């Protein structure tokens, strides 16, 4: 009986106790990432101060002092000597031009249909688990461009005008930005893959042509490419032969982006171990089946960040088309500054802020989707 008072044998498991509050949830995350040491704590407070100095004036300008409704510049002028905020009434008034440019207002429904079709086909294509991938890809890559072309430019069959012709010279705003960006992205990827394979080819002529093409387009700035394709190219064409300005810009942007894409893909090809090639050849696969089934899927998976980075750069570089007389979103915003109806000290800041928000939404969306695909495909080789 004396020994029974000294120790006790447990016959069942002890209840599981929750983790300390200081190590879980938001408090645990902050202790681990923000206040884990004296230096991290100091840097955290410095970061908070910097964020306050930057974000507070932005919120004050964009929301607190902003003007949301009005008919003209009088609504957005600073009152009683105060600071003027963002003139969102000006953005609302010019919103159709920012989206459609000078596209005829009676025909903007055609642009809306193109936008809707683009979204309806792109969203399921971007979802890995969505069914009917092959059909969706054919609709997006083959059928949609044809439908979009006739919807945007018009259709005339014989003497019957099915859709009125709309010249590309009156296109503008987000329409031009998306047309150039999407065309460049979709066309530059397969061309870049072909150039990367050509540069690694064992055939001297194909390798030499690929190297010359890549180095030439990487050696000149995009602004020069646009200027040459829009202004100088017609001088070298036979008399009576001409190309639409938008088509010339699309070709120039696609070739320029393809050269950079080729180097990104080549980096992925060089990262594939030699054993993968030898294993494919041991199975009796020829060059193209080997590339299509074994090498390229692994290479493209490894360089997803580089590919998306090139896409984001291309999307932002579409603003350069203003130098050849094409008014994309940023160009349309800049052209609106000449209207005295909305001329205020905050007009320029508001217009550029709106452009920044639009570009950020698209670029951030591509970036997050890239991270999603990296995690799904385990490109980091996590263990």
How would you characterize this protein structure?
With 383 residues, the chain is mostly helical. Among the domains are: 19-56, no CATH class; 88-103 and 166-337 and 346-377, Orthogonal Bundle (MetI-like fold). The chain is built from 14 helices and 2 strands; from the N terminus they run H-H-H-H-H-E-E-H-H-H-H-H-H-H-H-H. The protein has helices at residues 25-33, 38-64, 88-100, 108-126, 133-153, 174-199, 204-218, 222-236, 245-271, 274-282, 287-302, 304-317, 329-336, 347-377, and strands spanning 155-157, 160-163. Strands 1-2 form a two-stranded antiparallel ribbon. A hairpin with a 2-residue loop joins strand 1 (155-157) and strand 2. Helix 8 packs across helix 9 and helix 12 runs antiparallel to helix 14. The longest helix is centred in the last third of the chain and has 31 residues, at 347-377. The chain starts with 24 loop residues before the first helix and ends in a 6-residue tail after the last helix.
């Amino acid at each position: 009986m004396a020994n029974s008072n000294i120790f006790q044998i447990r016959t069942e498991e002890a209840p599981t106790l929750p983790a300390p509050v200081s190590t879980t949830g938001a408090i645990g995350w902050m202790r681990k990432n923000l206040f884990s040491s004296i230096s991290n704590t100091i840097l955290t407070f410095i970061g908070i101060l910097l964020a306050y100095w930057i974000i507070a004036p932005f919120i004050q300008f964009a929301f607190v002092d902003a003007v949301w409704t009005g008919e003209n510049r009088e609504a957005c002028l600073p009152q009683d000597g105060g600071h003027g905020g963002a003139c969102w009434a000006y953005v609302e008034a010019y919103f159709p031009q920012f989206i459609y440019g000078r596209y005829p207002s009676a025909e903007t429904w055609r642009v809306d249909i193109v936008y809707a079709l683009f979204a309806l086909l792109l969203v399921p294509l971007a979802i890995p688990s969505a069914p009917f991938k092959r059909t969706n890809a054919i609709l997006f890559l083959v059928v949609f461009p044809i439908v979009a072309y006739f919807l945007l430019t018009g259709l005339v069959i014989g003497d019957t005008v099915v859709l009125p012709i709309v010249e590309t010279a009156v296109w503008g705003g987000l329409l031009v930005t998306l047309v150039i960006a999407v065309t460049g992205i979709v066309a530059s990827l397969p061309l870049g893959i072909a150039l990367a394979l050509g540069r690694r080819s064992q055939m001297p002529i194909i390798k030499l042509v690929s190297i010359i093409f890549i180095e030439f387009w990487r050696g000149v700035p995009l602004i020069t490419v646009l200027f040459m394709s829009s202004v100088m190219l017609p001088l070298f064409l036979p008399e009576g032969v001409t190309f639409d300005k938008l088509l010339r810009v699309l070709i120039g942007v696609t070739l320029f982006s393809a050269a950079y894409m080729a180097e990104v893909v080549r980096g992925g090809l060089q990262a594939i171990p030699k054993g993968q090639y030898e294993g494919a050849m041991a199975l009796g696969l020829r060059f193209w089946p080997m590339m299509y089934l074994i090498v390229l899927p692994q290479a493209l998976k490894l360089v997803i960040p580089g590919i998306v980075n090139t896409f984001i750069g291309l999307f932002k570089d579409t603003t350069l088309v203003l130098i050849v007389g094409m008014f994309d979103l940023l160009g349309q915003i800049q052209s609106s500054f000449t209207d005295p109806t909305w001329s205020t000290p905050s007009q320029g800041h508001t217009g550029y802020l709106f452009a920044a928000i639009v570009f950020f939404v698209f670029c951030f969306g591509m970036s997050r989707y890239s991270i999603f695909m990296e995690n799904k495909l385990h490109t980091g080789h996590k263990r």
